[in-house]
From TrEMBL:
Cross-referenced InterPro entries: GntR_C, TF_FadR/GntR_C, Tscrpt_reg_HTH_GntR, WH-like_DNA-bd_sf, WH_DNA-bd_sf
Protein name in the entry: GntR family transcriptional regulator
Domain HTH gntR-type: 4-71
The species this protein was found in: Paenibacillus aestuarii
Keywords from the named record: DNA-binding, Transcription, Transcription regulation
Transmembrane residue ranges: none
């Protein structure tokens, strides 16, 4: 049981390090480095890395270390296509089910994003962007959709290009979120789908 707990801890911690961008500069790490940083023995680290390799986050290269994997253009396209399919599909039900409390959460996320624009905090902005879209999916209530979109976000965040881009116009994305919200408030399903589709494709 203790070993299983250590394996899970190692998995979560390493994944969080990848998502935070801790390896952006080198693109590599090693079992010894991770064991030292996390204070966990090599065996749970190895098991965690094998799991992350199966999920596409890393590649274990014998005698060379651990490569942090990005995404190629086709993989990115497929992820955005899947996002588009799921998120536009749920909008009619979201418009029907959205409560005042759920709307308030979305509006609070937008306000936090505006602070990120002021502070030029791209990493936190993108995390809030994830929270915004996952909140819409929570309203719909399909657990598989929620898990799928969460996995997509994690894979996008593990891609070095995601944080190295210099052309982000994050204030535009805030405006797009506001337009999505306004359409939902107005119960205008077609407009909400149109705004959401444009927003995702702009990504």
């Amino acid at each position: 049981m203790k070993e299983k707990t250590l394996q899970e801890t190692a998995y979560i911690e390493i994944k969080n390090k990848i998502i935070r961008g801790d390896f952006l500069e080198s693109g590599f790490t090693s079992q010894n480095q991770l064991a030292a940083e996390l204070g966990i023995s090599r065996t749970p680290i190895i098991t965690a890395l094998q799991r992350l390799q199966n999920e596409g986050f890393v590649k274990i290269i014998s005698k060379h270390g651990i490569q942090i994997l990005g995404l190629n253009v086709r993989e990115l396209e497929e992820m955005y296509e899947l996002r588009l399919a799921i998120e536009t599909f749920i909008i009619p039900k979201v418009v029907e089910l959205m409560t005042a409390e759920q709307m308030e959460i979305l509006e609070e996320i937008i306000q936090e994003q505006k602070k990120c624009v002021e502070n030029k905090d791209l990493v936190q902005f993108l995390k809030l962007d994830s929270a915004f879209h996952l909140q819409l999916t929570e309203v719909y209530g399909n657990s598989l959709f929620i898990q799928t979109l969460s996995n997509i976000r994690e894979r996008l965040f593990s891609n070095p290009y995601y944080f190295r881009r210099k052309d982000y116009q994050i204030s535009r994305y805030v405006k797009e979120h506001e337009q999505i919200i306004e359409a939902i408030k107005s119960k205008d399903i077609s407009q909400a789908i149109k705004e959401l589709e444009a927003h995702i494709l702009n990504g």
